[in-house]
Each structure stands twice: as C-alpha cells, then as structure tokens.
Specification:
The strands form 3 sheets. A two-stranded antiparallel sheet has the order 1-2. It has a two-stranded antiparallel sheet with strand order 3-4. The protein starts with 11 loop residues before the first strand and ends with a helix. The chain contains 12 helices and 6 strands.
Length: 335
C-alpha cells in the first residue's frame, strides 16, 4: 500500500451524538489491540506516518524511542479522549497497565515488570524478542494484541497454533513500527503482517500446538481473566510464583540449583538458559520450562513431595524476595 500525504493537517469531523469534533480518519481499536498497533493503523487511516501524525496531534510526544505500550500518561489520555469517541477506561485498556492486579500486582513504570516481555530497546530499535504474534490471527486481521506481550502466552486458543516471537526467515524481532522506514513521503509499503527487516510474510506455515500446550494456555487465560486460580489464589501471586519456579529451574547453580537438579532427576533433561536472566529468554527457550513449572504449581502435592524427597531448602524459593503466603505456608509444612 503506497499513498502520498494529501496534506499536513489532520482534519476534524463533528459527531452530533458525541457533541464534539473527532479526528476525521478515526478507526476504533480492535479486540485486545495494543496501543502502538492501533496508533500505527490510526495514522495510516489519516494517510500519514505515525511520526508525522504524532507530531501533528500529540505536540511532538515521542512514541518509538520508548516502550509506549506500558502505560499512558495524563497528556496522552487527554488528547485521545478529546479527539476520539474513546473513554479514559477504553484508552487505558489499550495499555499493558490494564493487567495490573491480574498479571502482576503493580506495574514498574521505570523498568522490568515480571510477566511482561521486555523489548530491550536501543533508541528506536528493538534488540529483544518482546513482541509475539499468532500467524493465523495476524493473517486474518493485521494488528497486534496485548496478550502477545504476556510472558506466559505461548499459543493461540482461537487458532490452535503456537505463537512466534520473530521472523521465521531472518529471525529478527518483530518491529512493525519500522515498516514505515523508507521514502518519507509514503506511508506503509507493507502491511503489519510483514517483517520490517526482510519483508517476508510472517504468517507462513503456522505450527499446531500440542494438547498439553493448549491446556496450559487455557488455564493461563482463565486466570488472567478471572483474577484468581482454582485454589482461589490471586492470579498475580500465581504468576509471580510461576516466574520464580521457572527462573530457578532454568539455570544451573552450585548454591541455588537444587530444585533444577531434583526436577532433572524426576522429569528428565530441562533446557538451560545461559548468560541471561530468564525474563530475556526467547519463546522457544522458555516453553518447556513454563510447562514444567506450571505442572508443579498445579499439583502442589507433587511439588511438596519433590521438596521433601530432595531436601530442597526453603531459602532457595525465597531467595531475593519472599514468596506469596499461600505457597510459603505449603512449603513450610512440607519441610
């Protein structure tokens, strides 16, 4: 799609039902769409690049040199509310802070939040594989979802396929905002289902997810939606524990490696994350680790038996930060 800018002015349209002017090219966000994806499509609808559109409408508010999907500041909420039909609640739903109280207790606005995949940003570049996608969803609807930034998302239940976190051709991260690069007088030459590096179609050859993976994903989605687990544990506490156990068994360590050694004895070889923290693992690296950790947390009797059998110290589980009381109490009784 190649279009020349018709002008450098964003035209407004008066909507009687709202009793206000809105951006003339306004399009609503799609189901679970993340802010950066919607804003890019919104700029396209105005026949402008996102940089030009933000310069004209957001007073130069910089978008792409930060993780702009984490949370909106008051200025951004106000501008979008004034110029679109969206309410503050609907605007907030575009951002990852909307998972607060479900995926994590409080979002860290200045750094890494457990449960969200970091982008590893360097200016406008993304060196980490922080954006995932379902090749089937993306093929049918060219936009990106919030849940594709969730660390524990590994499959799409609607399509029954594995998610991806890179281009299968060049293995580069997903950076759909860089599809705008090129002729400054043209908007996107490629739709959002193409790689910004090699321009390959991201949606080719989807891989069916196993029954085990789909069962895992169904539980994850249910906990995210309900805010609690089947044991009535708050979902953000469950996800905190899921990350803690996964991080422990993902690495070999002379002092803090008993749980990993015990799991290798009980379940066989476990992938190892080398030379980086677990939260920077790729999707491929973390799938088996997440599945095993989930198995242990869903069957705490099994987990307690492993702790008891292999004499795993409680300090290994509470290293760096105490664990939620429900789990702490269970493991104290198991010792």
């Amino acid at each position: 799609m190649v279009s020349k800018y018709p002008s450098n002015i964003v035209k407004m349209v008066f909507v009687p039902e709202l009793n206000k002017n809105i951006w003339g090219g306004y399009i609503p966000p799609k189901k679970d769409e993340i802010f950066s994806s919607w804003f890019l499509r919104l700029a396209q609808a105005h026949l402008l690049k996102s940089h030009s559109f933000s310069k004209l409408t957001l007073e130069g508010y910089s978008l792409w040199n930060r993780d702009n999907d984490i949370y909106p500041n008051d200025f951004l909420i106000k501008v979008i509310e004034i110029n679109t039909p969206l309410s503050p609640v609907q605007i907030n739903n575009l951002f990852l802070i909307n998972y607060e109280g479900f995926l994590f207790e409080r979002i860290n606005k200045q750094g890494f939040t457990i449960g969200l995949i970091p982008l590893k940003m360097y200016h406008r570049k993304r060196t980490g594989k922080g954006i995932m996608y379902c090749p089937c969803c993306l093929k049918n609807n060219h936009y990106y979802k919030k849940q594709w930034r969730v660390f524990y998302s590994i499959a799409c239940l609607e399509c029954g396929v594995l998610l991806r976190d890179d281009c299968t051709e060049c293995e580069n991260p997903i950076t759909y905002h860089r599809l705008e690069q090129g002729n400054k007088n043209e908007i996107l030459n490629f739709p959002l289902n193409y790689c910004a590096y090699c321009h390959s179609d991201l949606c080719k050859n989807p891989i069916r997810a196993s029954k085990t993976i789909l069962q895992f994903q169904k539980k994850i989605n249910t906990y995210l939606q309900n805010g609690f687990t089947e044991n009535l544990v708050y979902s953000h506490q469950f996800f905190e524990m899921l990350y803690k156990v996964s991080a422990l068994i993902s690495r070999e360590h002379d002092t803090w490696g008993r749980l990993r050694k015990a799991c290798c004895i009980e379940f066989g070889n476990i992938p190892t994350i080398i030379d980086k923290p677990f939260y920077l693992s790729t999707l491929k690296e973390r799938i088996d680790i997440l599945l095993l950790s989930f198995k242990l947390l869903e069957n705490l009797t099994l987990f307690e038996n492993i702790v008891r059998k292999h004499n795993i110290r409680l300090s290994e589980l509470t290293k760096d930060k105490t664990i939620p009381f429900y789990y702490l109490n269970r493991f104290k009784l198991a010792k």
